[in-house]
Amino acid sequence: MVDRINTALVGYGYAGKTFHAPLIAACEGLSLHTIVSSRPDAVLADWPGCRVAATLEQALADPAVALVVIASPNDQHFPQARAALLAGKHVVVDKPFTVTLAEAEALQRLAEEQGRLLSVFHNRRWDADFLQLRALLLEGQLGAISHFESHFDRYRPQVRARWREQDIAGAGLWFDLGPHLLDQALCLFGQPEGITAHLARQREGAQAVDYAHVHLRYPAQSVVLHASCLVSGGSPRYLVHGSKASFVKYGLDTQEGDLKQGKLPGHPAWGLDVESGCLLTQENDLVSRQDLPAPTGDYRQYYQSVASAVNGHGDNPVPAEQALSVMRWLSLAVLSDAQRRETRLTDLPALT
Q1: How many CA atoms, within 13 angstroms, populate the side-chain half-sphere of residue 173?
Q2: Which end of the chain has less neighbouring CB within 10 Å, N or C?
Q3: Are the C-beta atoms of residues 299 and 253 closer than 8 Å to each other?
Q4: Backbone angles phi, psi at 208, to 5 degrees
Q5: Alpha-carbon distance 281 to 295, whole Å?
Q6: What is the CATH number of the domain that holds 176?
């Protein structure tokens, strides 16, 4: 039996507390060994058996720690991941990978030089509805896809006093939700030919982007990615049209909501989507509707795959190159919005 991999979690804000700590603790191949935080009382109240380090340097100096998970504010991802790799640790970075494309490229090179695993937490690959949609496409039930929409909408009309909504590098809705939307689209359709983006600040007093409407151009598909803080309901999570059928899905995956409520992975209803997707087919003027219960979503599969890869028994679930591809299009979207035009991979030199 392989020993559990001692893991240090850096940051105990929303991402660290809600996602990473419980998922690491629930993974059979990992041990939540250390949490780097300036709030030891909050950490120990939740994880009384865990070591608390005041600084990243203290965690990196511990030879017992083999894996470091970076869940700090986005502008700290690069320097902290770099320090962890230089210390000889394997590294998981919460999305977005970094705040600039150049930083992401530098981390990928460093991980290769150090011979260490570097992975990015694109957990939405394990959403119940995405697993369902991916299966439908692989099985060909929708036929050739002509139009794909992916929405990640919320209703948060008030600007909150937190770093994610400040005018700083890596903040705003596009850097928060754009990586999820892009990663899923790239998983399904591969690399687009171009991207056109409209990013805006719509709420009163907004300092960072709180609206994103993005179009990915493919030879045969139209792919629309959308995120907003001013949608109180009515928009689908997915809207997909193909030559054989259409697929419509409302509601978000339930795992984040469960984690926010303190439900731990392994709960009997964990990962169950309460809203079925709908498969629509038409023959002449008759439309048939079939409700499709989604498979079980499970973010633990990401960390289980990380543990296996560190032990040499499997592949990195989200290799740095895949996350780097997300960063390219994330950055090209910002350039597209600034220049009010479609941008392509040939525009990348302008970003470095």
Answers
A1: 28
A2: N
A3: no
A4: -125, 165
A5: 21
A6: 3.30.360.10
Reported as a single tens digit per residue, the pLDDT across 311-349 is 999 999 999 999 999 999 999 999 999 999 999 999 998
Range of the domain at 211: 124-297
* Edge-to-edge strand ranges of the sheet holding 286-292: 194-200, 211-217, 222-228, 145-153, 238-242, 246-249, 277-283, 286-292
Question: How far is the C-alpha of 310 from the C-alpha of 119, rounded, in Å?
Answer: 11
| Distance between CA atoms of residues 136 and 142, nearest Å | 7
d(CA 21, CA 33): 10
Q: Is 307 found in the same domain as 290? A: no
pLDDT in tens, 56-77: 999 999 999 999 999 999 999 9
**Residue 240 banded pLDDT, cuts 50, 70, 90:** very high
pLDDT of amino acid 1: 45
Same domain, 38 and 174: no
Nearest residue to 201 (alpha-carbon basis) of 150, 234, 167, 232: 167
